[in-house]
Amino acid sequence: MATITSSGIGSGLDIESLVTQLMTAERTVPEKLITAKETSAQTKLSAYGQITSALNAFKSSMATLNNASLFTSMKTTVSDSTVMTATASGTPKAGSYSVEVLQMAQGQRVVSNATTAPTVAAGTLTFNFGTYETTGTGDDAVTTFNGTSSQTITLPEGKTSLSDLRDAINSAGIGVTASIVNNGKIDQLVIASTAEGATSGFTMSGTDGLAGFSYDASTGGTSTLSTLDAAQDAKLKVGGIEISRTSNVIDDAIEGLTLNLLDSKPGTTLRVSVSNDREAAKTAISDMVTKYNEAMTLLQNLTSYTPAESDDEEAVSGTLVGDGTTRNLMRALRSTMSEGISGLGKILGMSLDDDGKASLGIAIGSDGMITMDTGKLDTALANSSADLSSFLTGTSGFASRMQTTLNGYLDSTTGVLTARTASLDSQIDDLADQRTKLEARMEVLEARYRAQFTAMDSTLSSLNTSSSYITQLMNSLSSSN
After folding, report:
1. Distance separating alpha carbons of residues 189 and 226, to the nearest angstrom
2. Contact of 239 with 257, CB cutoff 8 Å
3. Which of 6, 142, 242, 343 is deepest in the core (most CB within 10 A)?
4. How does DSSP assign 170-199, residue by residue?
5. Cross-strand bridge partners of residue 149
6. Residues of the chain with pLDDT under 70
7. CB under 8 Å, gap of 24 or more: what pairs does 36-42 form?
8. How far apart are CA 220 and CA 97, in angstroms?
9. Which residues are CB-contacts of 454 (< 8 A; sequence separation ≥ 6)?
10. Nearest CA to 368 among 279, 444, 301, 269?
11. Are 137 and 223 in contact (CB under 8 A)?
12. What does the alpha-carbon distance between residue 403 and residue 332 come to, in Å, rounded to a whole number?
């Protein structure tokens, strides 16, 4: 509410100045105290936020590390990746394998005549699915079709175009698809099996307006349809042994490997090399070391104290210097990490100096930081990956134990940092309430001061009036004498 102010009319006193000075004196001390407490709480809250962020990053690195597959993964290379690629789908044995891709698996495809558009009208078209088999050779070769299942589509009255037939086939979802290709003169209908392999062959039997689409590759096709691709299995040699598969993705030829055939190249032997891939494990360990050091550096900076070196300088204190929560956190992290480093050290064959600094491998120094010899780590990953995996991963592994330590501070319900942050938030809210109450008291006090000075001004005005009257009266009496 706006306050009407004025100087003393009767007294001549500067009431506004007096009230302002009194209010400043009343407000300064409590307001500075509240502001100082708010600043301290906000600064600590920010510091705890930084710590939480750093610990979450460290915890994430530990979760990544807690993965046994990091220490068993393999990498593959193929001498010609345009013909075939290979990926580790299990735990293949390291070594070299020979593969020759003789032919690709493919599904059957047929196409309509390239010069004469077929007649399309209402009718049915039955697809018989199965395998074409050829016996004998040369002029004695005989091809037969062995059907295993059938599906029928119906083209209703009024549908007379290739696109109508294409749409009817595609909407049926029966294991074949149809598409239209314009060859520059007319549209051609292409019908293809959705599957690969020799068992994806089919014949077609049409009735009424679709009678012209009857087709059987074993009889050489018709004037309406001809073969684009015959259904066939993939054929390849693995280690000199010829095998066939219905798909170009083969996961049972070499144990633990999936072969993806991209092209056939008879007469060319591909070399598939399989070796240990420990880069992901090395990266995970290195990231863990980095995130731990970053967290410890932050904690040390927040709790540091640098005394003044001369009278002209001031001591420098970290935001959380002397903070018990932070000190306990640093001790907990260092204790758990020291335990882990000791175990890693045994695996890596490292030694430690008397002061705890690393002389080889990976170790935690007296300053709380981790140092790591990547060469030593490479050797351990190459020769002792199973031991590293056993120590680092699993529910009782080092990564899980460190995550448990971190959860004690980060848990959203019971975490120490969560509770400390909530306490600071509550303190900040309480200080905001104190500030509001202070403002309310100041308004009441200011109103009282103004009322008192106004009353004093009125009294002085009355006294001045009385004084003036008496003076006039005395002057009048003196004149009459």
Report:
1. 11
2. no
3. 343
4. HHH-SSEEEEEEE-SSSEEEEEEESS-SGG
5. 129
6. 1-13, 221, 345-361, 461-469, 473, 477-481
7. 37/427, 37/431, 38/428, 38/431, 38/432, 41/424, 41/427, 41/428, 41/431, 42/428
8. 41
9. 15
10. 301
11. no
12. 12
Residue with tokens 């004695």: 140
The tokens for 271 are 């070399």
Is 126:204 a contact under the CB 8 Å cutoff? Answer: yes
pLDDT in tens, 278-310: 888 889 989 999 999 999 999 999 999 888 777
Q: What pLDDT was estimated at residue 10?
A: 52
Q: Which helix (H) or strand (E) holds 280?
A: helix 279-302
**CA-based nearest residue to 188, from 219, 149, 224, 235:** 224
Residue type at 43? T
Tokens 């969560």 label which residue? 418
Distance (Å, whole) CA 101 – CA 99: 7
**Interatomic CA distance for residues 43 and 441, integer angstroms:** 28
Instruction: Output DSSP code: residue 306.
Output: E
| Burial category of 254 from C-beta neighbours within 10 Å (exposed 0-12, middle 13-18, buried 19 and up) | buried
* Cα separation, 369 vs 338, whole angstroms: 11
The pair of three-digit structure tokens given for residue 233, joined into one six-digit string: 């299995």
Residues ≥6 apart with Cβ < 8 Å to 297: 369
Round to whole Å and give the CA distance between 87 and 3. 81
Identify any residues that bridge with 144 across adjacent strands, giving them in sequence order: 133
Q: How far apart are CA 47 and CA 319, in angstroms?
A: 7
Place of tokens 């003393």: 8
Q: Between 374-383 and 279-302, two packed helices, what is the crossing angle to 10 degrees?
A: 140
Q: How far is CA 292 from CA 98, 295, 400, 416, in A?
A: 45, 5, 15, 19
Structure tokens at 338: 């020291």
User: Nearest-CA neighbor of 384 among 361, 402, 365?
Assistant: 361
Q: Residues for the chain: how many in total?
A: 481
The pLDDT of residue 4:
43
Neighbouring C-beta atoms of residue 138, cutoff 10 Å:
5
Token match 């900076």: residue?
301
pTM for the structure as a whole = 0.65
